[in-house]
Design a protein that fits this description.
alpha/beta, Rossmann fold, two-stranded parallel sheet, 40% helix
Length: 331
């Protein structure tokens, strides 16, 4: 792997869940890390030293030139994952990507790689026993997924001008993650929600994903390529909730939730968000993703071309995450 010592790396979305892991691993590799953050962003999980901060946002083109000055690697991790207004997904995930890539053009002589973090949601759900791979046409089912696919399309338009690699993670989990917390909280109350019929879900621990992202940035074969970065395991929803129950030491009862109830809960969650100011990720679109049931993706291309090899098993990752939630009194 290429040595990142003293390389200047810009990380957008550095204060977010995944961004903090990317920053952490770059610092460990000796990189000079520059974090693009908003003034209101929490820096709780970022190193207190060895990083520089530039205030700005990918939706504000005027803030990007300073952030990119002298950068050799750009890790575009910033993205919007929840909003009551679908148009906001496009503003951040699509137009924000264009803003950043256009700004990168002025710095292309120094840039060695630009990593664009997309999502499995851009590809859409899988079929039973058939994980999606990079060759399959994309069929996103939500505004979020469509906006991430548009972000990928924008990135590909710059392939001949910038050294870009696109990575698509599935569901990301691990310590620091507030979005997976809801599942742990439900199981901690003695309930294991289950959907009728089968399911397959790809996941990846944030530490494995950050390592894969940095590997893609360093590998010469990754230029102008797209990769799924996922764990080897594709558990069913029942297997996932059983792992969570075991990690929490709870004897949780399995409850089959009908589709209409999932949609009703999503509407209720949206109402709470509107009237109570909640920032829950669950909404009608997340419900439709959940009801698609099959969200498996293949990491074989990343294994073959990059040598990607996830280290954290589902069992180890869930145990670690549950322990961390309890330590932080989030559970």
């Amino acid at each position: 792997m290429e040595d990142f010592s003293d390389r200047t790396c810009l990380v957008t979305g550095a204060s977010g869940f995944l961004g903090s892991y990317v920053v952490e691993q770059l610092v460990e590799r000796g990189a000079r890390v520059r974090c693009l953050v908003r003034r209101s962003s929490s820096r709780r999980f970022l190193p207190s030293s060895a990083v520089d901060f530039v205030f700005g946002d990918v939706t504000d083109p005027s803030s990007l030139d300073e952030a990119l000055a002298g950068a050799e690697y750009v890790f575009h991790v910033a993205g919007l994952i929840k909003t009551p207004r679908p148009e906001d997904y496009y503003r951040v995930n699509y137009l924000g990507a264009i803003n950043l890539l256009e700004a990168c053009r002025s710095h292309r002589e120094r840039l060695r790689r630009v990593i664009v973090v997309s999502s499995q949601a851009a590809a859409g759900p899988s079929a039973p026993g058939r994980p999606v791979d990079e060759s399959r046409p994309c069929s996103p089912v939500t505004p979020y997924g469509k906006s991430k696919l548009l972000g990928e399309t924008a990135a590909r338009a710059y392939f001949d001008r910038l050294p870009i690699t696109i990575v698509r993670p599935p569901t990301i989990y691990g310590p620091r993650d507030r979005e997976s917390l809801l599942l742990f909280q439900v199981v901690a109350r003695g309930i294991r929600p289950s959907l009728a019929g089968g399911s397959e879900i790809s996941l990846i621990h944030a530490a494995d994903l950050a390592e894969g992202i940095i590997l893609a940035a360093a590998h010469p074969a990754a230029r102008s390529r797209t990769y799924f970065l996922a764990s080897d395991e594709t558990p069913s929803m029942d297997q996932l909730t059983a792992e969570v129950a075991a990690a929490l030491g709870r004897s949780a009862g399995r409850i089959t939730v009908p589709d209409w109830s999932v949609r009703g809960a999503a509407r209720f969650a949206e109402a709470i968000r509107v009237f109570g100011g909640s920032s829950m990720i669950f909404d009608r679109w997340k419900a439709e993703e959940l009801l698609s049931r099959y969200w498996a993706c293949s990491n074989q291309l990343a294994r073959a071309e990059l040598g990607f090899s996830p280290r954290v098993s589902l069992h180890e990752g869930i145990v670690e995450t549950a322990r961390w939630y309890r330590k932080m009194a989030w559970l």
